[in-house]
Amino acid sequence: MRKIETGDPKRTRTGRSVGVLMALIFLVQFSMPLCFGQELAGIPSSVKNPHDLEKWLSGFKSQMQLPDVPQTAQEMLTTRAGDCDDFATLASKALAGLGISSTVLVIKFKDSNIRHAICLWKDENGSYDFFTTKKLVHAGEQNVDGVMKRYYPNSESVSALDIGERSAL
After folding, report:
1. pLDDT tens across 124-156, in order?
2. Which CATH class is domain 2-36+47-168?
3. Scanning 13, 37, 74, 132, which has its CA 20 to 30 A from the CA of 45?
4. Which helix (H) or strand (E) holds 151?
5. Per DSSP, what are the bridge partners of residue 117?
6. Pairing of strands 61-62, 81-82
């Protein structure tokens, strides 16, 4: 991954080129709903929007494993437990099934090896919302930098996580 300058010399965003990221978002947005029913058969039909998803995820256990053993969304449906990247992956897949395109972001914190994953998307008003583990946050920000400054002020870098690259945490 390469660093992308954000305009603020103290903050960088790590990720792929815009063209590749847009292609990935397009692919996720249009292909995931096609396989949602088969791949994520364990999500109840009562989950119709992000609020329903939050309520359903509240029944899952948040647990951190060391070393981190990433789970697929289907595995998490079986274990009903996971850490931040597992929740972000499951939320992203579930949102795709609802027709909502999202991105899993990995946040690295300053002066630390700690990383955190969130599932981020734009709502119908163009503002960002995100899941941080089981909690739905209506950020009300119009750009990713605004979300990071408001909710993760101690972040050093942010990278988009291809769900196939789960070892990034």
Report:
1. 999 999 999 999 999 999 999 999 999 999 999
2. alpha beta
3. 132
4. helix 144-151
5. 106
6. parallel
